[in-house]
Amino acid sequence: MMLRKVWGSVWNRSNSCKDSISQRSIQVPVLSSSSSSSSLGAFDQLPMDILIQILMLIEPKDAMKLSLTCKAWQCLASGNRLWIFYLQCSQESWDSIFFAETSLHSGYPLRMISSQSGDLSVMRIYSMRAQVPGSIIIDGGSGYCKYGWSKYASPSGRSATFLEFGNIESPIYARLQQFFATIFTRMQVKASMQPIVVSLPLCHFDDTESAKASRRQLKTAILNVLFDMNVPAVCAVNQAVLALYAARRTSGIVVNIGFQVITILPILHGKVMRQVGVEVIGFGALKLTGFLKEKMQENNISFQSLYTVRTLKEKLCYVALDYKAELSRDTQASVEVSGEGWFTLSKERFQTGEILFQPRLAGMRAMSLQQAVSLCMDHCDAAGLTGDGSWFKTVVLTGGSACLPGLAERLERELHDHLPSSISNGVRVIPPSCGVDTAWHGAKLISNLSTFPGPWCITRKQFRRKSRLMW
């Protein structure tokens, strides 16, 4: 009845509007059939384009009901174009949903679905995604933790990990227990009510047996704590992999500028290739903040705490594309910090980020960012891990300090200058797609998959059985 009313309003338009529709009906296919079982009834002569526009006005559940009436309505109401529109009305972009459903649907190891295959029914995907239970996403970084409900647009809470979640000298189990219990309390949720997606921190970087054992021990401790808290299912994924997924990639190099370490991790089809990665220890966000603090003190700019310096770094600092040229420009800018008033910075704004490319400016003897990434690319090229030599040419930035404006453009330029043309051709650097919350949003892609929690999660029963087999 609603469709008839809408068509009635279309039919009663002015003559000029009728002429326009008539012209479109010549260009757009019209659904018609000789049999009543595959007829649209009063809508047989309506152009497909107009019909789709009308269907977009109704609720998805009503469109599903229409698809059950006859073959003609099934063909129209179950078409991908209509359901892509419905999915676009959600919080996630269609590009992200398409990437997730075609690349991540089967869990690890990843299995790609062709967009041309019959497996990709967007109506079925929509229906399954609507039934997916929400999950809690916890992205615990070395400096700050982000947590929230997977159905929300962004994390609902942030905390300073190293300040709030236990004494570092306490046993790992006790610290993790306090960590998760605090988050559940703040979110006012019961641990037993929903799956948990947790990011695994970028620690114990090496590919040695000792480092592998340490990573397994940490993951086992996380799972033990969560299952002891009666969590029904857990999905634990490496932070760098989540950042790569957020950029809608399954292969590439992830550059994580962490709290005290810069980690360059190659990832091939969702698997971290640690044997060809690079790590720069003692060089991260804390060093950038410390360098800005020293510059402010040199220029007699007073401040109350390191928090103020970090805030100024986030709001005023950037990376110059041409450092020497920037030195001769007027770069003065001001910002107000709550509780402390206004601050004005000039050359400190771009000198802070410059130490990533020229560590000697901060008195450091360390590899520069472009040298570390170039070395990693050389390792990937020499290893010959796959016949496709371009998989490592996409560089994805992640971490709070990776959000400095201009960093991606400068790194891309430096890599083209630093690498031989055989490797540098096609290199592209992607800034953090969701800012400081990039890994959290990568976890959100997994949490909202039509197949979640199935292929991505481990249940308590599976974990206990696997643990018995291991020992």
UniProtKB/TrEMBL annotation:
Pfam families: Actin (PF00022), F-box-like (PF12937)
Residue span(s) of domain F-box: 40-86
SMART domains (UniProt xref): ACTIN, FBOX
Xref: CDD domains: ASKHA_NBD_AtArp8-like, F-box_AtARP8-like
Highest taxon of source: Eukaryota
Sequence intervals crossing the membrane: none
UniProt cross-references to PROSITE patterns, sorted A to Z: FBOX (PS50181)
Name of the protein in its database record: Actin-related protein 8
